Inverse folding.
Protein backbone atom coordinates (compact mmCIF):
# COMPACT_ATOMS: atom_id res chain seq x y z
CA UNK A 1 0.00 0.00 0.00
CA UNK A 2 1.25 3.47 -0.87
CA UNK A 3 2.23 5.59 2.12
CA UNK A 4 3.48 8.75 0.38
CA UNK A 5 0.73 11.28 -0.04
CA UNK A 6 0.20 14.65 -1.65
CA UNK A 7 -2.05 17.34 -0.25
CA UNK A 8 -4.60 18.48 -2.81
CA UNK A 9 -5.83 22.05 -3.28
CA UNK A 10 -8.91 21.09 -1.27
CA UNK A 11 -6.73 19.88 1.63
CA UNK A 12 -7.57 16.22 0.99
CA UNK A 13 -4.70 13.75 0.88
CA UNK A 14 -4.02 12.08 -2.46
CA UNK A 15 -1.87 9.07 -3.15
CA UNK A 16 0.14 8.15 -6.23
CA UNK A 17 -0.60 4.59 -7.35
CA UNK A 18 0.37 2.41 -10.27
CA UNK A 19 -1.81 -0.37 -11.65
CA UNK A 20 -1.52 -2.79 -14.52
CA UNK A 21 -5.02 -3.04 -15.98
CA UNK A 22 -5.66 -5.56 -18.74
CA UNK A 23 -1.96 -5.57 -19.59
CA UNK A 24 -1.44 -1.79 -19.67
CA UNK A 25 0.29 0.18 -16.91
CA UNK A 26 -1.39 3.29 -15.52
CA UNK A 27 -0.36 5.84 -12.92
CA UNK A 28 -2.99 7.74 -10.95
CA UNK A 29 -3.15 10.16 -8.07
CA UNK A 30 -6.24 9.28 -6.04
CA UNK A 31 -7.98 10.27 -2.86
CA UNK A 32 -7.66 7.71 -0.10
CA UNK A 33 -11.37 6.88 -0.25
CA UNK A 34 -11.48 6.29 -4.03
CA UNK A 35 -12.92 2.86 -4.80
CA UNK A 36 -11.34 0.65 -7.44
CA UNK A 37 -14.71 0.20 -9.18
CA UNK A 38 -15.02 3.98 -9.66
CA UNK A 39 -11.48 4.30 -10.97
CA UNK A 40 -12.06 1.49 -13.49
CA UNK A 41 -15.43 2.78 -14.66
CA UNK A 42 -14.89 6.55 -14.60
CA UNK A 43 -11.17 7.03 -15.19
CA UNK A 44 -10.55 4.15 -17.60
CA UNK A 45 -14.03 3.78 -19.11
CA UNK A 46 -14.14 0.04 -18.31
CA UNK A 47 -17.86 -0.14 -17.76
CA UNK A 48 -18.01 -3.93 -18.02
CA UNK A 49 -17.23 -3.83 -14.31
CA UNK A 50 -20.72 -3.19 -12.98
CA UNK A 51 -21.62 -1.18 -9.91
CA UNK A 52 -24.53 -3.02 -8.34
CA UNK A 53 -25.11 -3.24 -4.62
CA UNK A 54 -21.98 -1.31 -3.53
CA UNK A 55 -21.86 -3.63 -0.49
CA UNK A 56 -19.96 -6.63 -1.84
CA UNK A 57 -23.10 -8.77 -1.90
CA UNK A 58 -23.88 -9.16 -5.61
CA UNK A 59 -20.50 -9.74 -7.28
CA UNK A 60 -21.34 -7.65 -10.35
CA UNK A 61 -18.17 -5.63 -9.72
CA UNK A 62 -15.89 -8.68 -9.59
CA UNK A 63 -12.45 -8.18 -11.14
CA UNK A 64 -9.29 -10.21 -10.84
CA UNK A 65 -6.61 -8.65 -8.66
CA UNK A 66 -3.38 -10.55 -9.11
CA UNK A 67 -5.48 -13.44 -10.42
CA UNK A 68 -7.92 -13.57 -7.51
CA UNK A 69 -11.59 -12.52 -7.71
CA UNK A 70 -12.25 -9.36 -5.72
CA UNK A 71 -15.30 -7.13 -5.32
CA UNK A 72 -14.04 -3.83 -6.74
CA UNK A 73 -16.73 -1.96 -4.79
CA UNK A 74 -15.00 -2.95 -1.53
CA UNK A 75 -11.39 -2.32 -2.53
CA UNK A 76 -9.84 1.10 -2.26
CA UNK A 77 -7.75 2.05 -5.27
CA UNK A 78 -4.74 2.68 -2.98
CA UNK A 79 -5.02 -0.91 -1.72
CA UNK A 80 -4.60 -2.13 -5.30
CA UNK A 81 -1.37 -0.16 -5.81
CA UNK A 82 1.16 -2.32 -7.66
CA UNK A 83 -1.42 -4.95 -8.59
CA UNK A 84 -2.38 -6.52 -11.88
CA UNK A 85 -6.09 -6.01 -12.54
CA UNK A 86 -8.12 -7.94 -15.10
CA UNK A 87 -11.59 -6.74 -16.03
CA UNK A 88 -14.02 -8.39 -18.44
CA UNK A 89 -12.59 -6.18 -21.19
CA UNK A 90 -9.23 -7.90 -20.70
CA UNK A 91 -10.50 -11.48 -20.95
CA UNK A 92 -10.80 -11.80 -24.72
CA UNK A 93 -7.54 -12.30 -26.58
CA UNK A 94 -7.10 -10.10 -29.67
CA UNK A 95 -10.43 -10.15 -31.49
CA UNK A 96 -11.45 -13.63 -30.31
CA UNK A 97 -13.58 -14.32 -27.27
CA UNK A 98 -12.12 -16.44 -24.49
CA UNK A 99 -13.30 -20.07 -24.39
CA UNK A 100 -15.30 -19.29 -21.25
CA UNK A 101 -17.06 -16.38 -22.96
CA UNK A 102 -17.85 -18.64 -25.93
CA UNK A 103 -19.16 -21.28 -23.57
CA UNK A 104 -21.48 -18.78 -21.85
CA UNK A 105 -22.93 -17.97 -25.28
CA UNK A 106 -23.15 -21.61 -26.39
CA UNK A 107 -24.87 -22.73 -23.18
CA UNK A 108 -27.26 -19.74 -23.03
CA UNK A 109 -25.79 -18.70 -19.69
CA UNK A 110 -26.55 -15.03 -20.36
CA UNK A 111 -29.91 -13.41 -19.83
CA UNK A 112 -29.77 -9.71 -19.00
CA UNK A 113 -25.95 -9.79 -18.85
CA UNK A 114 -25.56 -7.63 -15.74
CA UNK A 115 -23.94 -10.37 -13.65
CA UNK A 116 -22.08 -11.96 -16.56
CA UNK A 117 -18.75 -10.05 -16.34
CA UNK A 118 -18.32 -10.82 -12.65
CA UNK A 119 -19.50 -14.40 -13.14
CA UNK A 120 -16.98 -14.97 -15.94
CA UNK A 121 -14.12 -13.50 -13.93
CA UNK A 122 -14.95 -15.65 -10.90
CA UNK A 123 -15.05 -18.70 -13.19
CA UNK A 124 -11.75 -17.70 -14.85
CA UNK A 125 -10.07 -17.59 -11.45
CA UNK A 126 -11.46 -21.04 -10.67
CA UNK A 127 -10.27 -22.52 -13.97
CA UNK A 128 -6.80 -21.09 -13.45
CA UNK A 129 -6.61 -22.86 -10.06
CA UNK A 130 -8.56 -26.01 -10.97
CA UNK A 131 -8.59 -26.62 -14.74
CA UNK A 132 -11.22 -29.40 -14.51
CA UNK A 133 -13.57 -28.53 -11.63
CA UNK A 134 -16.59 -30.52 -10.61
CA UNK A 135 -20.05 -29.00 -10.19
CA UNK A 136 -19.59 -28.32 -6.46
CA UNK A 137 -16.34 -26.47 -7.10
CA UNK A 138 -18.03 -24.33 -9.76
CA UNK A 139 -20.92 -23.57 -7.41
CA UNK A 140 -18.50 -22.54 -4.65
CA UNK A 141 -16.46 -20.35 -7.01
CA UNK A 142 -19.49 -18.39 -8.26
CA UNK A 143 -21.26 -18.27 -4.90
CA UNK A 144 -20.38 -14.59 -4.48
CA UNK A 145 -22.05 -13.67 -7.77
CA UNK A 146 -25.81 -13.20 -7.76
CA UNK A 147 -27.88 -13.84 -10.87
CA UNK A 148 -31.56 -13.05 -10.87
CA UNK A 149 -32.29 -14.26 -14.40
CA UNK A 150 -30.72 -17.62 -15.19
CA UNK A 151 -31.11 -19.79 -12.12
CA UNK A 152 -27.39 -20.72 -12.40
CA UNK A 153 -27.99 -24.04 -14.21
CA UNK A 154 -26.68 -22.83 -17.58
CA UNK A 155 -23.88 -20.86 -15.93
CA UNK A 156 -22.61 -24.01 -14.24
CA UNK A 157 -22.96 -25.94 -17.51
CA UNK A 158 -20.98 -23.22 -19.32
CA UNK A 159 -18.09 -23.34 -16.85
CA UNK A 160 -17.96 -27.13 -16.92
CA UNK A 161 -18.12 -27.14 -20.73
CA UNK A 162 -15.26 -24.60 -20.94
CA UNK A 163 -13.07 -26.82 -18.79
CA UNK A 164 -13.88 -29.83 -20.98
CA UNK A 165 -13.03 -27.84 -24.12
CA UNK A 166 -9.58 -27.29 -22.69
CA UNK A 167 -9.26 -31.01 -21.97
CA UNK A 168 -10.18 -31.91 -25.55
CA UNK A 169 -7.59 -29.47 -26.90
CA UNK A 170 -4.88 -31.06 -24.76
CA UNK A 171 -5.78 -34.57 -25.97
CA UNK A 172 -5.78 -33.63 -29.68
Amino acid sequence: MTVNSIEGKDGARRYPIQLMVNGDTYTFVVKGNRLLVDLLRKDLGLTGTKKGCELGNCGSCTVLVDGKPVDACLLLAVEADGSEITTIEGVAQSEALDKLQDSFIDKAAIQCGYCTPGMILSAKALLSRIPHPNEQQVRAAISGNLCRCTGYVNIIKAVLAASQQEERRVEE
Q: What stands out?
A: The chain is about 35% helix and 15% strand. The first helix runs from residue 36 to 43. The helical segments are 36-43, 99-106, 116-129, 135-141, 153-171. The two ends are 45 Å apart (CA to CA).
